[in-house]
Amino acid sequence: MWLHCQCDIQYLPTGLQLGKFQFSFPVYLWSTRDVCHRLPKMGAYRYIQELYRKKLSDVMRFLLRVRVWQYRQLTRMHRAPRPTRPDKARRLGYRAKQGYVIFRIRVRRGGRKRPVPKGATYGKPKSHGVNQLKPTRNLQSIAEERVGRRCGGLRVLNSYWVAQDSSYKYYEVILVDPSHKAIRRDPKINWIVNAVHKHREMRGLTSAGKSSRGLGKGHRFSQTKGGSRRAAWIRRNTLQLRRKR
Prior knowledge:
Blueprint: E1 8-12, E2 17-18, E3 21-22, E4 27-31, H1 44-52, H2 58-73, E5 77-80, H3 86-91, E6 100-108, H4 139-150, E7 155-164, E8 168-176, H5 181-184, H6 207-213, H7 229-236
Antiparallel strand pairs: 1-4, 2-3, 5-6, 6-8, 7-8
């Protein structure tokens, strides 16, 4: 890791005396002005990002443990005054200006029970399972949906992981006010004002929602070409006899 500085080399002749020190060789003095522009820079957000890559370090273990304790004292869903991870929030589209809102929510970890009375499913033995069921969507997508239901007038932009303990996972959801002038006049974000983007989180259009749908770019996502797994399956299993005209 390089220390960024701006410096200037000054040459002083032999026999120089600086205070009580006598030099019998040429001296090069460095002052902070001119060189070192080509050294790589690291901003504050880059340092924060590196911290979160080492979650098992002593600093992060202590910090996350204290944060989780604080979150447990709050309600299940509440508005955060500022993002806990400003570097991550900015990478996902957040900007510290009017029209952007941060909500923090916790989701219970683990699988989900089938909601049937007294465990009676009234079907074939294949569908008798009640306890060991796993949700098809990830917990982050579920957290976005719950925040979107509470804040119906806002648009869910994205979300990110904050902390977790033995029972819950905590996420922060970035929301945008589509009726705010600062949003409507910003060409980088006013695409979300269109009505087609209402409740993106309910339709799996956010980043977390797309991951559970198997959408993405590259050779690993060939099973969802055409928009979904079903569309890809139908295209591969349909016999198309093209007629020469």
